[in-house]
Design goal:
The protein is of the alpha+beta class and 179 residues long. The chain has helices spanning 3-31, 72-90, 96-119, 136-174; strands at 45-49, 52-59, 122-127, 133-134.
Length: 179
């Protein structure tokens, strides 16, 4: 996949993730009141399936709610977004997996950054009963991270393979057959 196609495809995935994330968060904001604290069992919630519930938490901190209200998280998210194009180069040749990885990570980061910049906090709404709530952007970020890991693993494997092929050719070029 050439660079232009990669960038356009990743941008499409990122835009789709951002759109879905913001639309779902807006629906949650309109439908549910903010849960103000533990235990979440006392909060208004909607059971989707089994132990998966929708509720509304506003997170002004980092992942898992650490360091509430710190602007540092916006700066770190911006830095992360700026580094994505650099590590795109490491994913060169990984095709669809790399495209999805970059798109998911970019869309997820933009979704949460949009909330932080325009609302002051991130709306988390998925509760699976383990004491941590998250949102669609978080799911996209984590999925993108796993796909990026797989793409990098494949990229390293490919480099090692071609290095071995090159060494093998060099070795065979040095051997002369007796005629």
């Amino acid at each position: 996949m050439n660079t232009r196609t990669f960038i356009m495809s990743s941008t499409f995935v990122a835009g789709l993730i951002l759109l879905i994330d913001q639309a779902v968060k807006e629906g949650v904001r309109e439908a549910l009141t903010v849960c103000t604290g533990p235990p979440v069992e006392s909060c208004e919630r909607f059971v989707l399936v089994g132990s998966i519930r929708l509720l509304r938490l506003e997170n002004a901190g980092s992942v898992l709610g650490f360091l509430q209200g710190e602007f540092l998280w916006v700066l770190l998210a911006t830095l992360g977004l700026l580094l994505l194009p650099l590590y795109h180069r490491r994913l060169a040749g990984a095709g669809l997996i790399a495209t999805l990885a970059i798109g998911l990570q970019t869309g997820g980061a933009l979704g949460n950054m949009t909330d932080r910049l325009f609302r002051g906090s991130v709306t988390d709404f998925i509760d699976v009963g383990i004491g941590v709530a998250f949102n669609f952007a978080d799911v996209a970020l984590v999925a993108g991270m796993f796909l990026a890991f797989e793409a990098l693993r494949r990229s390293v494997r490919r480099r090692v393979h071609w290095k071995q092929v090159g060494e093998s050719r060099k070795a065979s070029d040095g051997v002369r057959a007796d005629v």
